[in-house]
Amino acid sequence: MRKLALSVLFMLWAFAGFAQSAQQAETDSVVLNRIDEWQDLKLGFMMHWGMYAQWGVVESWSICNEPWIDRQGEPYTDYKARYQALNKTFNPTHFHPEEMAAAAKEAGMRYVVFTTKHHDGFCMFRSAETDYSVAGSDCPYSRKAQPDITLDIVNAFRSAGLLTGLYFSKPDWHHADYWAPEWATPDRNVNYDIAEHPERWERFKAFTHNQIRELTHNYGDIDILWLDGGWVRPEWSLNEETLPWLGCYQRVQDIDMDALVAIARSDNPDLIIVDRSVGGRYENYRTPEKQVPDTLLPYPWETCMTMGDSWSYVPGDHYKSTTTLVHMLADVVAKGGNLLLNVGPDADGSLPEEALLRMKELGAWMRANGEAIYGTRPLYPYCRDKVRFTQSKDGKHRYALCLLDEGTRQVSFAVPFAVKKVRLISSPKGGKAKAVGQGGNTVIKISATEPMQHAVAVEVIEN
Question: What domains are defined for the chain?
Answer without folding.
Answer: 27-372 (3.20.20.80), 376-461 (2.60.40)
